[in-house]
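Hi P.,

Sorry for the delay on this. The queue was packed all week, but I finally got your sequence through. Input first:
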Amino acid sequence: MSHGRRGLQSTLGPHGITLLVHARAGGPDAAGVVQYLSALGGADTPPPSATLAPGDRDVLVGTYVFGAGPRDHFIVDVQNDRLGIDRPGSPARRLLIHSGNLVFFPSGVPTAKIAFAQEGGKITQMTIADPDVTTTARRQ
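Then the structure:
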């Protein structure tokens, strides 16, 4: 079998779920896709994540401001034991996945990075970096 599409098996679908998991959910109609992805190897490897203790997670909760406008802030909170981020007027991202050293990515978007900075043992700011845009917000 030719593997001309090298790397396809490591592509993530919606919510950070591997394509192989999506194909399996397709049942018998997707059996050929399951077989193809499985033959490529490494098709069921989720993005790396790191454990974060609830106490370490909870210190990140707060409002982070990046401008003077009414929507120029993010709210980081915990709901259903999951760290999430919200910006007024935008869809909330209910699951942030910890990749280590207080750096996270929204589920399904491993290319976006949300990094928290500490000064004197306190969280002071958050930087969101999408490949083309970077925003730094100070904790209120």
